[in-house]
Amino acid sequence: MLGKDKLYHLVAGFVISIVFGLINPVLGLALAVIAGVGKEIYDKKIKKSVIDPLDAISTVLGGVLGTALAIILTNMI
Fold this sequence. Notes:
This protein is mainly α. It has one domain. Helices cover 82% and strands 0% of the residues. It contains three helices and no strands. The protein has helices at 4-21, 25-45, 53-76. α1 runs antiparallel to α2, α1 runs parallel beside α3 (53-76) and α2 (25-45) runs antiparallel to α3.
């Protein structure tokens, strides 16, 4: 079961990838991956907290789902 934090990461990755993926699916996915990994680097370097790989994975998974939807939507138009 996804915790609340992982769900937020999933939704963030999805939103990033769908918004930019409608312009360019590769860009949308790349930005979701960058956001997921970047957030964990930010947490480690700035907030001095522990990196949670599942947070990054959740963000990337949301990005994959959003990219898939963006591809489907752009092919329907």
